Amino acid sequence: MKDRLEEIMDWKRKEIEPVVRPVSDQEWERLAARPYANPFLLSNVLKTHEERLSVIAEIKRRSPSAGPIAEGIKAEDQAIRYINGEAECLSILTDEKFFGGNIRDLWDVVELLEQHNRKIPCLRKDFMIHPIQIVEAVEAGASVILIIVRALNDDEIRVLQECATKVGLDCLFEVHTEGELERALKFDPKIVGVNNRDLTRFVTDLAMSEKLIPKIPDTIFKVSESGIFNLEDAERARNTGADAVLIGQALMEAEDPEEFIEEIHRL
Fold it and tell me: Which residue out of 38, 43, 91, 195 is catalytically annotated?
């Protein structure tokens, strides 16, 4: 029986198949020169906020583990709450089948940031496989992409990282085991996220951050992802040495997400 991540990746390959095409050197050069809307790198933002635990605030309408969370919400409405709370980064889920998002959400959030003259990095949170998805991310105004180490072989990771670098995007390398962390470190990443959720079974345990984050070199920005539902969880993540927490469901369900973010900053 396939695990959940394999199921999702099989679907993602089928989903993107109609748009997959080669990307020429000339197109990469054009994208690199484009004054796209939000070129602020997450790695640089985290450097300027080292004195506090940063928040990567996620727009997530549903998930395979939690089911429906906030299915009817507009991405830009949730984004303004996160902006008001001074989240350091916005994570926009663009997978439709499993998470209820789409690439239009990323466009809408970046347009909102432009309207408010706010410079906040945006993560395209999706199951990245092919360079064409990076083209989409750049055109929509993302400044960070997700690389799920367990979902890809080393050649696939190398291609995605090289393409992202060509157009000035950061990569958030996501790991869940020591073996995945060892693989990630081979690529000299700027940012590594420990996913506390086992994508095989979608079971969450903050002990994964406690186990893996101390093993990440201090020169790399460390993110604790998933399973952070309250201030106690956020403080537990901070105590592992995390520089940032990525929070989706708890912020989507919070009555006052701005206050939740501000409280995390005060930890």
Answer: 195
**Active-site position among 125, 196, 222, 258:** 125
Can you give the residue ranges of every domain in the chain?
A: 4-13+40-265
Residues 6+ apart with CB under 8 A from 23: 131, 132, 135, 163
Active site residue 195: yes
Cα 195 from Cα 43, distance rounded (Å): 18
Give the pTM.
0.95
Write down the catalytic residue from 43, 196, 209, 226.
226
- In the set 76, 136, 174, 180, the catalytic residue is 174
pLDDT at res. 2: 60
**Average pLDDT of the segment spanning 148-166:** 97
**Active-site pick, 58, 76, 88, 136:** 58
Q: Of all helices (H) and strands (E), which one includes residue 106?
A: helix 103-115
The CATH label, of 3.40.220.10, 3.20.20.70, 3.90.320.10, 3.20.20.150, for the domain at 4-13+40-265 is 3.20.20.70
Residue 60 known to be catalytic: yes
DSSP structure string for 42-79: HHHHHHHTTTS-EEEEEE-SEETTTEESSTT--HHHHH
* 225 assigned to active site: yes
**255 labelled catalytic:** no
- Of 216 and 4, the one with more pLDDT: 216
